Each structure stands twice: as C-alpha cells, then as structure tokens.
Amino acid sequence: MQRLFLYAVALAALGIGCSGAQAAPDEIQVYTEEMDDPGKFGLEMHVNYVLKGATAPTYPGEKPSQHVLQTTPEFSYGITPNLEAGLYLPVAFTPDGNSYLNGLRGRLKYIAPREPDSPYFWGMNVELGHSSVRVSESQSTLELRPILGYRNSDWLLAFNPILSTNLSRNVNGRPEFEPALKLTHRVGGEVHAGMEYYGSYGPLSRFVPSGERSHYLYGVADFEIKGVDINVGIGRGFENAGDKWVAKAIIALPFN
To answer: Do the beta carbons of residue 39 and residue 236 sit within 8 Å?
Structure first.
C-alpha cells in the first residue's frame, strides 16, 4: 500500500501542476462503500466555509463565495443491504447576514454485494438536483458517480470518476468529467489521516487544456467521538479553482 499511496499522490500532483473559475460545492466528499442498514435512517451534516474565495460573480445572478458558510443536511435511508436513498438541502449563509436555500437534490446509491472479508468495493450513485442560480448556472443537473475502492484496517483508497450533466436549456449539456480521490492511513487508534482530491476537467468528449482545469487538494482526518463519525479537512484551490482556501467538515449525527 505504500507504493499505492505514492502513486495516488503523484497523480494528484500531476493534475495540479498543469480563466471561468470553479468554486467548491456545498458537498465536499468522496463516496465509499458505507451504507445505512435496511430500514435505518441516517443524517450527515456537511459544513463548508470559504476562507478565501471569489469576490465577484462569474455569471449573472451568482453569489460570490468569499466568506460564505454552507450547511447541507443529508438525510439517508437504507432500502436494501445494497441500495440507499438520500436527500440534500443546501443552505448558505453570506457575510451580509442573509441565508439562502440553494436547492434540493435526491440520490440513489448502490454498492455491489461482496464477500465479508473482501477489501475491494464498487458501486454507483445517481443524483438528480435543482440548484439556485446563486450557486449554479444550470438549475437542473444529473450526476453519475461510480464508486471504486479498497479498505482494510489501515488503508482506505476510494475513487469517484464523476460525470456531471447540465439539464437546463441555457447551459451546455455535455457530460463533464469531475474526478474525486481519497486516500487515508490509520495514524493511531481509530484516527485516519490523508488527502482528498477534486478536479474539473471539462467535457468528457474533449477535456479542456490543462491550464484551464480546476483542482482542489485537501488534507483530511477521519475519527469518531462518542459514536459520532467526523471528517474534517482544509483545502487549497489551484489554478482555475474559484476558492483558494476552504475548510470543511462532515458530521454523521445519530438519527435513530
């Protein structure tokens, strides 16, 4: 796994090293095999704060992201051992003291059956959403998120080669490639630390030149406090990233 770690970091570095800037979304997460049990509800709170970001809109109606706090509760429900449904309600708090509901998104997540001792997993997440013009030039979107990964007691490697499509008529509807990668290692007890990478490469049919792509690299930690799973991270945006510094957290709250 040490070689795998170095290889994944090198891939991220090559992409970063390589302007319409790409801002950080309200949900900053790489999907893994984790699922709600059948008949059980789940609640995750996504909290992101733009420490240094865009101060001017890039299209009419957009709200600049500088010092915006985004809180997105994600409600989920286990339908079967391999199928889970989810609902997102993104809310933004702006520096002028206003708050906005920025849309509604629903998803279905499938994780393929596997042997109990197998470290490998794969699946698919399908998400359909409506977003406010404050955060997206396209009000309707469809996202296909394959889920590929490996997990043992010490290592987690997860890769989401995401395809995102705009469904609004006023925006180009070509599928865009937005890869996400997570790699963590157990550093002590049940604390895991590592990195998450998020990129935007343009249309799948023809990637934009490397100098026009956007990249985010986060240092992250995953741990548990009194039964509450927590992911925290600090991210740096490179090149065409709309936000230069972003703090994020995901808190899995007890629901039942």
So the answer is: no
Distance CA 148, CA 73 (A): 25
- The closest alpha carbon to 104, from 136, 146, 68, 58, belongs to 136
> Rounded CA gap, 53 and 63, in Å?
11
What lies within 8 Å, CB to CB, of 245 at 6+ separation is 50, 51, 52, 53, 234, 235, 236, 237
CA 110, CA 237: separation in Å to the nearest integer?
A: 30
pLDDT (0 to 100) of residue 22: 58
User: What is the value of pTM for the model shown?
Assistant: 0.88
d(CA 55, CA 215): 19
Over residues 186-220, the pLDDT tens digits come to 999 999 999 999 999 999 988 999 888 999 999 99
Contacts of residue 116, Cβ cutoff 8 Å, sequence gap at least 6: none
